[in-house]
Each structure stands twice: as C-alpha cells, then as structure tokens.
Specification:
binds D-glutamic acid; Rossmann fold; alpha/beta; four-stranded parallel sheet; 2 domains; six-stranded parallel sheet; globular; 11 helices; 42% helix
Length: 262
C-alpha cells in the first residue's frame, strides 16, 4: 500500500481528460498534475525539445513524491517515453493514438487520425501503424494545427473552433472514414463539436478509460495502490496561467490549483 500521489503532466489542460478517467476509476488515489503551459504547445517542437521538457516535468513530479507518472500527452509520450523509461526508475504510463482498436472496429477499413505534428511524425506512431493486425487499413492523418491553443484559451464553444474542426474533419468524412481517433489529449474536450460535424455514423475513439484501467493494473502489479479507504487529494500546478484549469475543474474542496514558477 502506498499513499504517495500519481503524477501526471501535459503541456496544458489536455491531460485533464485522462485525469478525470483516472479519478473516476481510482477515487482513493491522490494526484499531482502539472500543466506546463509556459511551453505549450508541444506539438510543433523538435523531438529533443520535447524530451528535455518531459524530463523537467518528470523531475518536478518526482520531487513532489510521485509514485507513478502518467505522461498525459500524446506528443510527449510518442517522443519521450523510451528515454524517460531508461532514465528514471518510476513506472510510466504512456498515451498513444488508439489506432489499433480503431482498425479492429473499422468495417470500411478506413480510419481518421487527428493529432499534433509531433505525434504524426514520431517513430512510435509509424511503428504502431506497422503493427496493426490488419494491414489493409487506410489511415487518413490530419494535423490538428491550432486546436490545442483554442482549448487552452477556453475557446471550445466558438465559431472559430467549429470552423477549424470542419476544415479538418469534413475531408475525412468525404473519404469515408468510420472511426476517428483523437490522438491528442486536448481533443476530447471538442467531442460535442466533432459529433455535430461527423454525425452519429462515425465512431470517436479516445483512450482515457483504457489509460485509467492500465494505471490501475500497473499500480497493482507494483503493489503501490493506495488503500481503498484513502481520501485522495489533488493538486494542479500550472507555470503560466491557472485560468484554463479553473474553467475545466469544477469547484471542489479536494482540489488545489496553484500557479508556480518553474
Ligand atoms: N495534449 C497534448 C497531446 O496530447 C498536446 C500537445 C501540444 O501541446 O501540442 O499531444
């Protein structure tokens, strides 16, 4: 049994989609969340920059006593995970686009992937595509340029966001996809708009529930779960602005949101 917190990081509020699923499944676990919004977005940075930021974030969370780290960002996971696992002893949970389940579920054998440039050009993604069991799946890849910034600015429900999504998604719909993989943890916050554009025929796949189950499995495997009677405490840090965190986290007396210089 271990009451130390689970650490999570992202370039901003995107990882909250993962945090919410983890908190629902493991309400007795404490968490520390770092939104590195001073350096957002990560998507257009080089692999080396993403690795350096991921190391810095990991060290911050380890200094706060994290027992396990969820890299709640596809861009950081797909670029930095092998490096982090080699350098630090703590267990890491990675997030990668769910193209395997999408491929298995696709009847038309055509899936869309919306992700950042950093994820789309990563070696981990091309390895993942090679490993899809049915090789004849057509994957239409689209860079969601600008979407992370709009979520960070709390502009989810604006015509600007809706029009940008239309620009990215309508061509995929016209090409006949039946699954859309959200390859960035910021995008689940856009699901209501995405559904309006794609209709009910196209299945939207995002990994937060699967990541929460994986986190539970790894905590059990390493025997570091908190006791079920534990009352979880949750601290959210941001190093530029806490505004977006405040909008997405409902007021609750188990949360602490703090601005830090880091
Ligand atoms: N939430 C991050 C991801 O999943 C966003 C990356 C960015 O900051 O561009 O990729």
């Amino acid at each position: 049994m271990n009451k130390q917190p689970i650490g999570l990081f992202d370039s901003g509020v995107g990882g909250l989609s993962i945090w919410q699923a983890i908190h629902r499944l493991l309400p007795y676990e404490s968490t520390i969340y770092l939104a590195d919004n001073l350096n957002a977005p990560y998507g257009n940075k080089s692999k080396e920059e993403i690795i350096a930021l991921s190391e810095k974030n990991t060290e911050f969370l380890l200094n706060q006593n994290a027992k396990l780290i969820v890299v709640a960002c596809n861009t950081a996971s797909t670029n930095a995970i092998p490096h982090l696992r080699q350098k630090y002893k703590v267990p890491f949970i990675r997030i990668q686009p769910a193209i395997k389940p999408a491929g298995l579920q696709s009847r038309r054998k055509k899936i869309g992937l919306l992700a950042t440039a950093g994820t789309l050009k990563s070696k981990m993604l091309s390895d993942l595509i090679q490993k899809i069991p049915t090789q004849d799946i057509d994957i239409i890849q689209q860079h969601g340029e600008g979407l992370v910034e709009l979520v960070e600015k709390n502009k989810v429900h604006t015509p600007e966001t809706y029009n940008l999504l239309k620009k990215y998604l309508l061509p995929m719909r016209q090409q006949g996809i039946d699954q859309l993989v959200l390859g960035c943890t910021h995008y689940p916050f856009l699901i209501p708009q995405i559904k309006k554009i794609l209709g009910s025929e196209i299945n939207i796949i995002e990994p937060s529930e699967a990541i929460a189950r994986q986190t539970k499995r790894i905590l059990e495997e390493f025997e570091i779960s908190a006791p079920k009677k534990n009352k979880g405490r949750h601290i959210f840090y941001a190093n530029k602005s806490i505004k977006a965190l405040k909008v997405l986290l409902p007021a609750d007396n188990i949360y602490y949101i703090k601005q830090i210089n880091f």
